[in-house]
Design goal:
Layout lengths: L1 E3 L13 E7 L17 H10 L13 H9 L6 E3 L4 E6 L1 H8 L4 E6 L2 E2 L2 H4 L25 H6 L3 H6 L7 E6 L13 H5 L3 E6 L10 H10 L1 E2 L3 E2 L6 E6 L9 H16 L3 E4 L3 E2 L19 H11 L3 E5 L25 E6 L23 E4 L3 E5 L2 E5 L2 H18 L5 H10 L18 H10 L8 H4 L2 E3 L10 E8 L4 E9 L4 E10 L2 E8 L6 E9 L2 E9 L1
Parallel strand pairs: 7-11, 7-12, 8-11, 12-14, 14-15, 15-16
Antiparallel strand pairs: 1-3, 2-4, 2-5, 3-4, 6-13, 9-10, 17-18, 19-20, 20-23, 21-22, 21-24, 24-25
Helix pairs in contact: 8-11, 9-10, 11-13, 12-13
């Protein structure tokens, strides 16, 4: 949980003052403290149990009060407190930095990064002369001018089937929404039906003119037949305002972490981030490309921790691309460099990469973006009408909306399974590159793969307590992977089977009596094509499942 304290925009006390994150070495256990955030809803706890990983319970423990008191004794006022990051942000002078760094419980200090202003990240909507004449007379729904962007990602067959993201919670972290959400035809039913659940402002500042967040919501979840239909038009929507667009301050990174932890506590299933952090104004703390390594940016760290809690994080790759890295920033930005973040680049209506789309790889060599969707001439709600606009900001919410369809089809999917499915069913799954990643999303194939992973099993608490299964290694795999099982109980019959993305059994890794103790189990995929695989380990009725990706 993250606590956003009052008065987050603090005036600098001296010319050398700058905002920093202060990370602590540990958390002192307190037997009376709740290890889950007080604000965590039952939906959040249920999502963690279904899709989250087993985490250190101290991750959600409160910060150590004595550490906060010691900072205040030095005259340092914490602005934002993060349980996940085990740290606080604060404005520090040079002298205060020296004193804080000397504290025995301080692990590190890091200047706060800079956010791309919405005006640069997503160009202003372009005038759209007239609605495109919809000639898809065979469709059940009238998608109007949004038909093309849905067809590019093969979402229409799934929407025609009736999927709409119903029952799934979609979060939008962005700018403000303006005043048209309840009145605009694309979003009015979302409000009147109660599917727009909650909006929270983390800026502490007055509303500004930007309605970027409103347009993003319309791409993902808008619904006006004959004009625009978003893939998640039946989902429940949450919104966090973290951007104040008139200025480019260090505050936005703090706001982002605050908004993300708040969304996790609300039980949100998938979050769209149409923001990016990199290098900007002279004299402010900026990132370098070497820091796009999945481990440096606090927004990246927070996003990957959200995934550990069972949330799926979809992030725009950024609009900093161009013809060559010698001419511009060129690469993706944080938090798209996250190891478990689904990064989305932009293509045009013909599926070709647009020049402005942020490129990979990450600084540590990973393929990014993961996938692409239409990011040029995207039809969206703007003001009181409709417009066409450009930006990875609008490719990303299309993918986030598609993720709600996968979760509607299979609510038990983990974030890593969702990412694996999107990559392995995309148009260039076998030949990824650093521009289009694994290619254009194929919604119909992804939903089918999600359904194929529905495998049930009965597991008693007694049986479950007897086993501990380590994650397969390596993953992704070239030839063979190893699952290591620790059996604390008596010997038991076990069967390890592996399925492809179509649900077909391709190999049996083990079928016999499993002894007590540590047992490595091998999965041999040498004779199988590249793609996504599901392993299923049956331990006398206790079922363990997971995914492997063969390169």
């Amino acid at each position: 949980m993250l606590v956003l304290l009052a008065g987050t925009i603090a005036p600098a006390r001296a010319q050398d003052a700058a905002k920093h994150w202060i990370f602590f070495t540990d958390k002192q256990p307190d037997a009376t403290a709740r290890l889950e955030p007080d604000s965590a809803t039952p939906a959040a706890l249920a999502r963690r149990a279904t899709r989250g990983r087993q985490l250190d319970p101290m991750l959600d423990a409160p910060l150590t009060p004595a550490y906060l008191d010691a900072l205040r004794d030095l005259g340092v006022a914490p602005l934002v407190e993060s349980r996940w990051l085990n740290g606080v942000s604060a404005v520090l002078t040079d002298a205060e930095r020296t004193r804080v760094e000397a504290l025995p419980f301080v692990r590190a200090l890091r200047p706060v990064g800079i956010v791309a202003p919405a005006a640069e990240q997503a160009p202003a909507p372009l005038a759209f002369a007239a609605p495109v004449q919809d000639r898809r007379s065979a469709y059940r729904l009238d998608y109007g001018a949004s038909a093309g962007q849905l067809e590019l990602v093969n979402a229409v067959p799934v929407l025609e089937e009736g999927l709409s993201g119903a029952g799934v919670k979609l979060g939008i972290i962005d700018t403000g929404l303006g005043n048209n959400l309840a009145s605009h035809p694309a979003t009015a039913t979302m409000v009147s039906d109660g599917r727009f659940v909650l909006s929270q402002d983390f800026t502490g500042l007055p509303a500004d003119a930007s309605t970027h967040g409103f347009s993003v919501i319309s791409v993902a979840a808008g619904y006006e037949p004959g004009q625009l239909i978003g893939p998640a038009y039946g989902a429940m929507v949450y919104h966090a305002r973290t951007e104040y667009t008139p200025t480019e301050t260090n505050q936005e990174e703090d706001n982002f972490v605050a908004g993300l932890e708040w969304m996790e506590a609300q039980g949100v299933d998938v979050v769209n981030v149409s923001l990016g952090y990199s290098t900007f104004d002279a004299g402010q703390r900026s990132y370098t490309y070497a820091e796009m390594d999945g481990n440096t940016g606090v927004t990246t760290i927070a996003a990957d921790l959200a995934v550990e809690h069972g949330m799926i994080v979809v992030s725009a790759a950024g609009n900093e691309g161009c013809g060559s890295p010698t001419l511009c920033w060129y690469y993706i930005t944080t938090p798209s460099d996250g190891k478990n973040v689904i990064s989305v680049g932009a293509v045009n209506t013909g599926g070709l990469l647009v020049d402005f789309s942020g490129r990979g790889p990450t600084a540590d060599g990973r393929t990014k973006p993961d996938i692409v969707a239409q990011g040029q001439s995207v039809y969206l709600a703007s003001g009181t009408s409709y417009a066409s606009s450009n930006g990875t900001s609008f490719a990303s919410p299309m993918v986030a909306g598609i993720v709600t369809l996968l979760l509607e089809a299979n609510p038990a999917l983990t974030p890593l399974q969702v990412a694996d499915i999107l990559r392995t069913t995309a148009s260039e799954a076998a030949t990824p590159d650093f521009g289009r990643g694994y290619g254009i999303v194929n919604t119909e194939a992804a939903v089918q793969a999600a359904r194929d992973l529905i495998i049930t099993g009965v597991e008693s608490p007694e049986t479950a307590a007897s086993f501990e299964l380590e994650a397969p290694y390596p993953n992704p795999v070239l030839d063979r992977a190893t699952l290591t099982l620790h059996n604390a109980g008596a010997p038991i019959h076990a069967r390890l089977t592996v399925y492809n993305s179509l649900g077909q059994e391709v190999t049996t890794g083990f079928d016999g009596t499993l002894p007590t103790g540590r047992q490595p189990l091998e999965i041999d995929l040498r004779d199988q094509p590249a793609g996504l695989y599901l392993y299923r380990l049956d331990l006398g009725g206790a079922i363990r499942t997971g995914t492997l990706v063969r390169l």
